[in-house]
Each structure stands twice: as C-alpha cells, then as structure tokens.
Design brief:
The protein has 1449 residues and is mainly β. The protein is 12% helix and 42% strand. Strand 75 and strand 76 form a beta hairpin. Helix 12 (881-892) runs antiparallel to helix 13.
Length: 1449
C-alpha cells in the first residue's frame, strides 16, 4: 500500500459548542407571527402567545460540523383534539405543547471549530438587523459568517488570520499552546475579543449600525436584511499589561464603552502547594476604546482562589461578573463583592472571616452555565446535576448568593439559552437536549420526583423515536426533580419547572468497538449483501451517559412473510371505502392516516394480479373488474380528498393503452387512451392523472368528483411546443396554507379572495394546489399550474445541477452578455470534448412536501448517468425581482406575458442538498421503470424510497434528508407501502431474484442520525468491548462510580505486603467518614435480544477492590496437554493504589460455557495470575498468549491449567496501548514511545525487534494495513494525526532495517481510538479486469472510530487512481468556495505541536474534499476533468468504486 484514501462515513455527533442568536431572521420578524388570528377568542389567546417572545436560532458545532437550527414552537390550542397533543414530547407547559429543532443549513468545514460565539447586532426588539456567527480555528484564524437569504445559507463576511511569518512575534517563541483561540463578544455587539497564543488579545471592532453607511439604511428600508459585521481588528499584548497566565475573559453589561474583565493568575501554584501559596488569581477590568485603540484599567479584584477558571457576566440591570471556582463562587462588580462556599475545601483569602456556605456540598470544577433570567443562572456540574444560582440584590448591589439543586441531566459541554423560555444542553458525552423552562413561585411547589414525562404510559413512549424514549425512560434519574423546596432564607426563591422538548442523538465518544453479527443476519448472503449481516457495537458516552451504541450503515427490514414471485414489474396498494371491515363506524373513518389498504395490485410481465389485503393476502384476480390481461403501469386512488366523501372514493388503474376507474372491485368507467402510442409513466394527484406517452406527449386525465368520472385533456402548451419531454410529475401542495402560494408575488392570492376565483367547487379548494413539473430532453425544467397549464417557474439546464435554481424570468441578463455567453459555451463544446454531454437528461422527477407545520417541498431528479439531484425549496423575496419583469413586459408589449408574469412563483428558489452516501447506477438504455416511491408513514418515518440495484431510503427529519442504504437483498425492482392488521405501517418490496417480501422497519433503531443507531444505556462508563463469535456474546468492561467512606479508600492505598499502618494523625474523625467517589470495575457479558428488546446481561465478572480492568479480549489458545485449540476470554487488570505502591496486575482467563439457561455457569474462571506491572493489552499469537505487563512483553503457552512464559521482550515501552498481530508479526503501540515492530520465531522461541519508529509519538491506536502482498503499519496519535509506516530493511535510510519509514501522514482532526481491518468489497470495475486477480482480492480497508463520534475509513488505492484523484484534489482546493474561507490543504497537514518532525510523503487523498466534485455544476465538472487530463465518468467511477469497496455494515 503506497497510496490510500481517507473517507468519512459517519460524521461527528458530539456537540462541543452551542450558541443562540438571530442569524436567519431578525427580532422584528417575530412581531407579526402570532399564529393565524382566530376571531372567536382573541383576547384569551393573546397573553400566552406573547410570552414566548422572539426565538433566536440555535447554532451548534461538533468537531468540523457547523449546523444552524430554527426552533419551531407549537402553541397549545385548547380547541385541538387532545389526542394529537398527547403525542408531542413533554406535555403542555406555559401554553406550549411542543418545541422542535429544524435544520436550516449544515456545513462540513475544513477545520475544527475551537470556540464560537454570536456577534449581536445590537438594537432592541424591533431591530431589523441580524446577528453573525464568529468562529475561531486552531492557532489564530477567525471567520465571521452571516446568513444570506438569497442562497439560503451562510456567507463569509470577513476573515482574520494571525498566523504565518508576519505574526510570528505573537507566539513569543512558543510552539505549543494549552488551548486554541477563545472568542467572546460584547453583549451589545460593539466589539469582540479573541484570546490567541495564550497572551495576545485580538479586538474585532464591529461596524456600528446607522453610522454613515448609506447603503445599509437603504437596504433596511427595502426589506432585505443586514447582519452585524466586523470592520477592523487590532492586537493588544496582555503581557505588556503585566498579565502572565490568562484563564478566562468576558465582556460585562452596563457600561457605555465595552468593558472586558480578564481572569488571570499572577503566580502559578498547584494542589500540593496550596497551604503555602493560595488565592493567586485576580480579575482586571479594562475599558476598551476601539476608536482610540486604548484600554485603561478601571477596576480589579485580587485574592481569588487558585482554581478559579470561569467568568460569567451578570446581565443588566445588575451587571458585574460571577467567578466560578472548584469550591466557591464569587461575585464582583465595581462597587460590591460577595462569595459563597460550596464545600469544606473553600477557605477565605486571609482565613479570618467565615464565608457563607451553601446548604449542600458540591464541587464545581468543569461546570457550564447560562442565565435563565436576569438574576438566576443555571449551572451544570461535572456529574450532570443542574444547579440554580440566585443573586439576591437591591438596585445594582448584590449582597448574597444562593445555590439550590434542581435536576439531573446530561453531562454538558455547553449551555445556550434560547429566548426566554428554552435552553439547549449541548453534550459531547451524551445526547443533547432542548429543554423548556418556566419559573413558578416556590410556595406553590410540591416536591416533584420522577420523570419529566410522567403522564405518558411507557408503551406509548417506546413507540416514539427510540432515542427519545431511552433518554426519558432509562435515565429515571436523568431528569428527576430533586425537590426544589425553598431554602431557609427570607426571600421566596424562584423555582423552575422543566420539560424536555427535543434531543439530538450522539454516539461519541467512541472508545472502542466490536464487529459482530446482527440478530437477523442471513447466513446465505454473499458479496455486498453479506455486509448487512454485521453491526458495530460501540462503547460510547461516559458516567451515567455511558451506553452501548449499535450502529448499522444499512437498513435491514424485519421480514414478516416472503413469497416467490418471478417477473414482477411493479406493485401498488390502494384504499377502498370498506377497508376497516365490519366496525367501520364514522369515528374510525375520521383517522384518515390510519386507514388500512384494501387491494394489492401486482403487475407481472404479461398479466396483472390483484390480492385482497385483509387478514390474509388472498388472490381475487378472477372476481374483480381490474384489467388483468396485460401489465399495469400504475394504480392509485381518486376522489378521496374529503373525509365525508369517502363513499365516492375510486381506484384508477392505468395500463399501456387505457385506464379504468373502479369502485372497489367493480368497474365504473373504462377509458381507451391512445391507439398510436403507449403510456410510459404515470403520476397521480387527486383528482388528476398525468400520463407521459411514448410519442413524447403528455395527457392529463381530469376527474370530476361530482360524477366520479374521468375525461382526457391534452394540454395545449405541449401540443404547440416541439420540445420533447423526458420526465414529468404532479406535485400536490397540500394543506390549508399551501406553501407554494407564499412564493407568488400576488399576496392577495393567499387570502380568501383567490379561492372564489379558482375553482367552482370550493370544497376541494382548501386541500391545496396542484402543479405539474416537467423536464425536457434539452435539460430544462418548468413548473405549470394544473389544470390551466400556465408556466409559473422555469429553469434552464436543470440537469447540470447548479447549486441554486432561480426562475429564469428574474435572472434575465442583458441581451448582449447573453449572446456572448452562448457563443463561448458553443466554442467550448466544440473543443474536442468527447464526453457525451448531450445525451444526459432527466429520466425521473419527484416533488413532495412531507407533513410538518413549516415543511418546504423537496424536488428530486434522476439523470441518465445515475446522478441524483436533490433540491430543497425556499422563499426569497428579493428587492430586485419586480422591475426586471416589468421591463420585459413593456418590451414585449403583449398582454399574455403580463398575465404570465403576474401568476409566476417569483419568490420561489431551490437550493441543492448534498447526498452523502449513495452509489450511482447508470440507467440502462430503453425505458426504465420508475424508481422513486414516496411514503408518508412507514414505522413512523416519512420520505422516499429509491429502488434499483443499490436501493436507498431517503428519510426526512427536521427538514433534513437522511440517506440510508439497504443492501441486504441486492437489487429491488418494486416497492410500495402496506398498512393492514398484520403489517402495521409496513412495506412490500420485490427483489430482482423474484421474491416478494412483506416487512416492517426495525422499531428499535433511530433513523435521525448519519447511520441508524440503537442506544443501550449502561448507567456506567464502558471502556472496551469484544465479540465472542461462537456464542454471539459481547463481553465489555464497565466502570460505575461508587461512594465509599474515606477510611476504606485510604486503607486500600496501603501496600499490604509491607505491613504499613495507616497514619491518619492529620485527619479528624469526621473527615475519615466523609464519602469519596471511586470507580468500581466489572466485566459484563451481554447478549443481543431477538425482538429488539434491551440486551440481557448474561453474566458479570466483578473486579477486586481498587482493581481496574484494562483490557478484555477473546483469545484462541493451543492447549499443549489436549493438543486442541480453546477459545477463552482473557482479561488484563491493574491495581490502582497511588504512587507509593508498586504496580501490580492480574491476568484472568475465563471459559464460556454451553448452557445459556443458567447464567451463573455461563462464564467460569479457569486461571488467574498476578504479575508485576499493569496488564494493558493481551492478544493470541499462534496459539500462545501475548501479555503486555508494564514495561515487559511476555509470551505464554497454555497447558490447560496454567500459563508458562516461553519468550519475552524488554523493550523500553512505558505502557502498551495496543497490540496487533498478523501471522507471526507483532505491532505494539506505546503511550509515549511510538510503535515497535516485532516478529516471533517458533524454533528458537524468540521475540525479535525488527524495527521501530525513532520519533516520540503518543499513540492512541495501531493496526496493520494489508494491500495485496504489502504490509504497512498505521498509527494514530494524540495530535489527531494518522501515520502509515513500512518496514524496508534494504533501504539505506532505514539504518539497516532498524527504523520504520514513513509512507504517508494525514491530519484526521479527531482522536482515533480504534482501527478495525475489514476486507474490501469487489467494486464494479474490478469484475471486468479479472487478470489482476489475487492482488485486488487481498485488499483491506481500516474502519476507525474517534472520540468525536465519527467513523471513517482508510482504504488503499492503486497508483493510477491515486494520481488522478490527487490532481483532482489540487484543482478542487481552488475551484470550490470553501465555507468560512478555510484551506483544506492546511487542515490536512501533519500537526506535530512543536516537536521536531520530518514531513512524510503526502500519499493520502481526502474524500471530504473530493465529494465536492459531484456537487459542482455539470459544465464545471467537465472542465475540471479536462484540465487534469481525464474524463468526468472516469473520476465518478473511481469515486464510486471507492464507496462500493468500503460499503461495510
């Protein structure tokens, strides 16, 4: 392996930064949005609606992912039926029945976000200005982003970089820094400060609103938004102000000029020296004058505890700053100060006066905080408790601090308050939560205990998305309310009630994972389908958020029945009025979504079958009037729009030369369509049926609901035009407020007036509008309204996949430039481009808006080369959209155009959505069967299913598309939904092998994640997991914190052998009985459950007191007495007893028994031995057991009763973090000394060092990388890099083979904790070239997991592909506009953090950058491919082969 590709497969989920701000809208946009006015009880509704106030956006970052969310609140409407309110999460509180987060935009940046803040625009609640996002990146890069409505995304407004030669003086000779840049912002948005290189403060001056800039004022008046921007920047050296060690800084409220308060330590101290040197911290307040660039000191406070680490600015009107330290909280302002001791370790600076104490003891190191109101802050501790800090104040003087317990929740990495009634708990270690709070007076509070969701029965709760259920059920303590009774103080304390409203799944930090078989694995599967037999079982989370995450990249539906059915072309299910059977009373009918299907129509090659979908699927082909002599093109329901008209509902069945209307089983109308041409594709949107004919024409069947008949109508638009149509579809814009109406410029249409004009029968009118989307052979796309067929939106060259689609009528450039452009493009086309650009066209279209109050339509198109274009509609009211069309009208001077332009959807635009994990498949020549099927409810999910050789599920959650492949059955030819008694909200599909399968989606998995995931809570920290394949068991190490009395803990720290007595002279008796938290380790053996129930713990192996289990592995040992191989469970442990006791450890061997009934005898200990040093890694090497114990590597043979050492290796490793074995080669990674490459010789019983890396690398994980006959060694380190080494004793620079040589290096941007070697799958191009044979088959990729919750892989490439992709990568660095202006090349440079490092070769391509190629417009793809001397199809097939070869799990 000389060349490799780095590919992300599951992006980071652990949220590191969160903030809220008015990014996509301004505060003023909220004034009119007080629900549609209900005239009947306006007065009663008004106060509750107003209370929520303007809701800002939520911005979160996870490693290099940046996401902006909108908070959607559902007001509780008492007139709604109670049934619908029950389903929302968290019940009704303060007039709100639910709140959910909806994705606005998501970006993958070329750099990890260190810190983030929102630059406020200043101004009050009626301000029209918006906030901007400030991101800070490693070393000293700062980007300011603002939301641009016209592209519905973020745009960089300024970039500030303080790196490189001209800024070297800022580092003052240092190479490594304890932390990255820290950014904070003035609450009024006048400036922002960024602390870089430890002591350099960068001040970013914001451009002030309403000063001088005329353009801004004009823009504001014309209605377009202006965001806060940064005007200039300068540097303050804090060293010149006599500050040495800055810990934190912030801007405080209530001053005329921005005032920055800095927390810094004058002289360093540490825990062992505190009795001599303590209270070393101080705060200094500087008044920042950005115009004069001056910063005088205005006040300061000294003698703060040495462990103070965080400043919390107190909001107006109080002002000042709260200083948080591990054992006390201090408040300081210019005029007053007070403090609160949190536990017995807090002492005042001069030991004289006693500090006020809180009523309970708590440690506050590593806390996060936000303000719930102007005098109550919420703190989240390191154990996940939420505490409320109340400031008792008079005027602006704070005279007391009160702390009270509130609830338990996740372990947070950040908290953001969103508006005045919600906050967001961001977490790296557990799921992040959106919580609503309201304050209640303490007198009325009863002691509430228990779950937040007390009222929902647990069965109903499990039916919701599984992660929600877990979050609330399992963590009984998670959100239990510790009775928040008032403290015994004079003031009545504010108490709050909370309700969880939404949650984000997080699978990080992935400490370890095992690769095992799924429950419903298919033993007969081969090839890629075999991959969906496996799943990753991951150790993730920490403490009480610890969980096992079961991740699967592909969906494997749970099969109910399967029938062999060769030659199937399509399947459809239809409703009929008596589908609910005997008890079809009116209430049952009303729940329209829950209605059962009546018939299943199956189209075979030359006939059609009809089945009843009652309790049993029975064939009724002979007894119904369906057309059964030939194949069916499509079937569906008509006239079922209104619930009270259900008795009129009909089925329409379209076949090649005609259509039939049926009432249940009886035909009511038979309609011949055309003699000359046949029907190719059908789209049904009640009451219209759109047919695309083989002669390129379009016919519309128009239904008449009053008579339930259908007539043919050929739209005149298409008769006259000579353009031939390649694909078309109907789009039904449902709902009482159809979304597309908002995009029309005639606002009056959306009010009641339009309905009187539009249709004679007003009954159907409130069901929305219907549009027809058409794409032509030329690649253009048009949208027409139905049935008038006026063009309301048109796009040139839809198939080229531009990033944004805008109505061509708006973007009409002036005539001359148009001509020049067309000339140029023609010339380019003639320049010997051999690529068949002309025959790429759209073969299938779909447009759909799924349910949801604020949902917007998606538009999908499939091209002939297999590209899937996905667009999301958005609304943009541009100031410039009116005049141009008027000019066009006056120029043409004809009436028709003015009519046309009046009804156009002028404010409609589409933005392209990247689809990560899909593999293209070329459309075969000739007609293709439709591949897209929309579903509204399959197991509670909605979206679109794409059939074909690599089927995909597109699921829509929070207005975001999640793509999940389904590999288990190979190619799928037909798909439909089925809802009946035996198959509740399930699905039917037919495989290309001719099997019809009726299935349901597995309910335990949650699909709103990059991969489907199931979380199994452990209530402890998981450390390592392994897979016992023979019994399908997962042994894993779990540690649970246990409170113990201090004297027990101390006695365990004494070396028993030396016989020391415990010297506790300096500890008083009450201190000895204080409890102390100790981690207790155990190994749990878990077994997956069949039905998807929680996994069962089959056995538990406890460790001794103060013994930590470090490693658990399944090993195969050769028993020298019985001469047989035995598969055993090996556990390595260490006694952790402090620095005074010599390190010892145990190695334990367990056999796993046969009987699964009695869990006691499942595992039995067969051997244990104590060794010197911690046993940190074990592995089996050709039947021997290799043990890393402290600084020694010892190889043992197994006699059946004991382990005997046969060889050892005394390397200078300090602590082995990983051991890998291939044949007789050993790779070991050390915590500080990099990697060692050893071999084992049987005849001389020798462990020989072949080579080592001479660098000092802090290893995290190691593995062998196998490519054909080449063996490479890969290692990841603490600086988030990976390096690939190779052993070449013949090369001169390897010092006769002593030194491992570098083959490639790459910066991943996350700590890689585990590599897993998996054989690559054969890709499409490999099958043709069978001559290369064995070299391609023995090729392995490495799957890796990281601490951010991301999963990726390193896959070997052959040189030709690598050179091609590398030159493409170099082009894309400049060709793609990168978000936040980050450079992908500098992000992927090896980081050595100041250590000497000789750069290695750049032999890894970055697929995170290459994936931008497919998102470029078609013409640019051709151009770039031509510039690097290859073709677009060649590049795409290389990328395709790579994703095929690595489509694991």
């Amino acid at each position: 392996m000389s060349y490799a590709a780095y590919k992300m497969m599951h992006w980071p989920t652990g949220i590191e930064n969160c903030a809220s701000g008015f990014v996509t809208h301004s505060r003023a946009d909220f004034a009119p949005q007080i629900a549609p006015i209900q005239t009947d009880d306006l007065e009663s509704e008004w106060p509750t609606k107003r209370q929520i106030g303007p809701l800002p956006n939520l911005i979160v970052t996870a490693a290099n992912i940046l996401e902006v969310y909108m908070v959607r609140v559902q007001e509780d409407d008492s007139r709604e039926s109670r049934a619908s309110a029950e389903t929302k999460r968290g019940g009704v509180m303060a007039g709100i029945s639910g709140a959910a987060l909806e994705l606005v935009c998501q970006y993958r940046l070329h750099g990890n976000v260190e810190t983030m803040t929102v630059l406020p625009s200043g101004g009050g609640d009626n301000s029209r200005r918006r906030d901007s996002i400030i991101l800070a990146f490693q070393d000293a890069k700062i980007s300011v982003l603002e939301f641009d409505d016209s592209i519905h995304g973020l745009r960089t407004s300024s970039m500030h970089c303080f790196e490189g030669p001209e800024w070297f003086h800022l580092k003052r000779g240092h190479e490594s820094f304890a932390r990255g840049p820290l950014v904070k912002v003035d609450p009024q948005g006048r400036c922002s400060g960024v602390l870089v290189y430890g002591l350099q403060m960068i001040i970013l001056k914001a451009s002030q609103a309403g000063y001088g800039l005329v353009g801004d004022e004009e823009a504001l008046s014309s209605g377009s938004a202006v965001s806060a921007r940064v005007e200039s920047s300068y540097v303050i050296s804090l060293r010149d102000l006599d500050m040495k060690h800055v810990k934190d800084f912030t801007f405080v409220h209530g001053y005329i000029e921005p005032v920055m308060v800095i927390l810094h330590e004058r002289e360093l101290t540490w825990a062992g020296r505190v009795s001599w040197k303590h209270h070393t911290c101080m705060i200094s307040a500087l008044s920042i004058s950005t115009t004069l660039k001056q910063h005088p000191l205005i006040w300061s406070a000294v003698n703060l505890p040495h462990d103070a680490y965080k400043l919390l600015p107190v909001p107006s009107p109080i002002g000042g700053v709260v200083v948080i330290s591990a054992n006390s909280i201090h408040y300081h302002s210019q005029s007053a100060s007070c403090a609160l001791a949190l536990n017995n370790y807090a002492v005042s600076a001069d030991n004289s006066q006693e500090m006020p104490r809180s009523s309970f003891s708590v440690e506050l190191d590593a806390a996060n905080a936000t303000w719930l109101s102007n005098d109550v802050a919420m703190l989240s501790t390191k154990t996940g408790e939420l505490l409320l800090l109340t400031l008792a104040y008079d005027g602006r003087v704070v005279h007391r601090l009160d702390l009270s317990k509130s609830r338990a929740s996740v372990l947070t990495s950040g908290i953001a308050a969103i508006g005045n009634s919600l906050f967001f708990l961001g977490s790296r270690l557990g799921d992040s939560l959106l919580v609503q709070f309201t304050s209640i007076l303490s007198s009325s509070v009863k002691e509430e205990v228990g779950d937040i969701e007390g009222d929902v029965p647990s069965a109903k709760r499990l039916r919701k998305s599984s992660s929600d259920a877990l979050q609330d059920m399992v963590n009984g303590e998670e959100l239990s309310l510790y009775g928040s009774a008032p403290n015994s103080t004079e003031t009545s304390q504010k108490t709050f009630s909370f309700s969880v409203r939404d949650s984000f799944i997080n699978v990080g930090p992935l400490k370890d994972f095992a690769y095992g078989l799924r429950i419903n694995a298919d033993p007969k599967a081969t090839g890629i389908a075999k991959q969906s037999n496996y799943e990753l079982v991951c150790c993730s989370g920490h403490g009480k958020n610890g969980a096992l995450c079961i991740l699967q990249q592909s969906i494997r539906p749970e099969m109910i029945t399967e029938v062999e059915l060769p030659g199937c072309k399509g399947i459809w299910t239809v409703y009929h009025k008596n589908t609910r059977g005997h008890n079809a009373d009116s209430t049952k009918m009303a729940t329209k979504d829950d209605e059962y299907h009546a018939y299943l129509i199956i189209s075979l090659e030359s006939r059609t079958m009809v089945l009843e979908t009652a309790d049993l699927l029975g064939e009724v082909t002979e007894s119904v009037d369906y057309y059964v002599q030939g194949c069916t093109i499509s079937a569906g329901n008509l006239f079922g729009r209104l619930i009270f008209c259900l008795f009129r509902r009909r089925v329409v069945q379209v076949y090649a030369r005609g259509a039939r209307i049926l009432d249940g089983a009886f035909m009511t109308q038979d309609l011949p369509i055309s003699e000359s041409s046949t029907v190719l594709s059908v789209s049904i949107a009640d009451p219209y049926v759109l047919l695309r004919m083989s002669d390129g024409n379009i016919q519309l069947l128009v239904g008449d609901p009053s008579t339930c008949t259908v007539s043919i109508n050929i739209p005149a638009v298409f008769e006259s035009s000579k353009k031939s149509i390649s694909a078309c579809t109907l789009y039904h814009d449902k709902g009482p407020e159809p979304w597309l109406r908002k995009t029309s410029t005639d606002a009056w249409l959306s009010t009641g007036i339009g309905e009187a004009i539009d249709g004679a029968d007003g009954a159907a009118q409130d069901q929305g509008d219907i549009y027809c989307v058409v794409s032509y052979e030329s690649g253009d796309l048009e949208i027409f309204d139905v049935p008038n067929f006026n063009c309301v939106f048109s796009v040139d060259k839809f198939m080229s996949g531009n990033a944004h689609l805008v109505d061509t009528l708006i973007l009409e450039p002036s005539e001359d430039t148009q001509k020049v452009m067309s000339k140029n493009s023609e010339e380019e086309a003639d320049q010997g481009r051999k690529e068949n650009a002309h025959n790429i066209k759209v073969v299938e279209l779909a447009m759909q808006r799924w349910s949801g109050q604020h949902s917007r339509p998606f538009l999908f198109g499939i091209l002939t080369d297999g590209t899937i274009l996905c667009y999301h509609a958005y609304l943009y009211e541009g100031p410039e959209s009116t005049p141009k069309t008027e000019e066009a009208v006056s120029a043409q001077n004809s009436l028709s155009i003015s009519n046309v332009s009046a009804s156009r959807l002028r404010n409609l635009r589409f933005v392209r959505v990247p689809l990560d994990t899909y593999t293209r498949e070329e459309a075969l020549s000739g007609t293709t069967s439709p591949r897209m099927t929309v579903f509204k409810n399959i197991g509670g999910c909605q979206g679109l299913f794409l059939s074909g050789s690599r089927p995909l599920w597109f699921m829509v959650f929070r207005e975001r598309i999640r793509v999940h492949p389904q590999l288990c059955d190979g190619s799928i030819v037909a798909f439909t939904v089925l809802h009946n008694i035996n198959c509740n909200h399930g699905l039917i599909y037919v495989t290309s092998q001719g099997f019809l399968k009726i299935c349901q989606l597995p309910a335990v998995s949650s699909y709103d994640n990059y991969w489907p995931v199931q979380k199994i809570p452990l209530k402890g920290t998981p450390h390592q997991v392994t897979y016992f394949a023979e019994k399908n068991l997962y042994p894993l190490i779990v540690s649970v914190p246990v409170l113990k009395p201090l004297n027990h803990v101390l006695s365990s720290l004494v070396d028993q052998e030396a016989g020391h007595q415990l010297e506790n002279d300096n500890l008083s008796s009450d201190e000895l009985h204080r409890s102390y938290s100790v981690d207790e380790f155990e190994v749990r053996v878990l077994e997956p459950e069949k039905s998807g129930a929680p996994w069962q713990t089959r056995a538990t192996i406890p460790m001794q007191s103060s013994e930590n289990a470090l490693t658990v592995r399944v090993v195969t040992l050769f028993n020298t007495t019985t001469k047989e191989n035995e598969t055993l469970l090996a556990i390595g442990t260490a006694y952790v007893q402090g620095e005074d006791v010599a390190a010892r450890g145990r190695v334990l061997l367990f056999s796993v028994g046969k009987n699964t009934d009695n869990s006691q005898n499942l595992v039995s200990e067969i051997y244990s031995k104590e060794l010197k040093g911690a046993i940190s890694a074990v592995a089996s090497l050709q039947g021997h057991l290799l043990i890393a114990s402290g600084p020694k590597i010892i190889l043992h043979k197994w006699t059946g009763t004991e382990l005997n050492g046969v060889a050892f290796f005394d390397a200078p490793p300090l602590y082995v973090v990983s051991l890998n074995i291939v044949k007789n080669f050993i790779l070991l990674g050390d915590i500080h000394r990099s990697i060692y490459f050893l071999s084992w010789k049987e005849q001389g019983a020798q462990l020989n060092l072949l080579a080592k890396d001479f660098g000092s690398l802090d290893c995290f994980a190691t593995e062998f990388l196998i490519d054909g006959s080449t063996l490479s060694l890969i290692v990841s380190d603490d600086q988030k890099n990976i390096q690939i080494f190779y052993y070449a004793p013949k090369m001169s620079e390897s010092w006769k083979g002593q030194k491992l040589l570098s083959r490639a290096e790459f910066h991943v941007g996350a700590h890689v904790t585990k590599f897993l070697r998996l054989q690559m799958l054969p890709a499409s191009s490999d099958r043709t070239s069978a001559t290369q044979g064995s070299d391609k088959t023995n090729r392995f990729a490495l799957l890796f997991g990281t601490l951010d919750g991301s999963i990726g892989c390193i896959a070997p490439l052959d040189e030709l592909t690598f050179r091609r992709l590398q030159s493409l990568q170099k082009k894309l660095v400049d060709a793609v506009p990168h978000v936040a202006g980050l450079n992908p090349r500098s992000f992927r440079q090896f980081r050595s953090n100041g250590k000497a490092h000789r750069p290695g070769p750049d032999n890894i391509v970055d697929c995170e950058l290459l994936c931008h190629y497919e998102m470029l417009p078609f013409e640019e793809q051709l151009e770039i491919a031509q510039q690097i001397g290859t073709t677009r199809m060649q590049i795409l097939s290389n990328l395709n082969d790579l994703s095929l070869g690595t489509s694991f799990l």
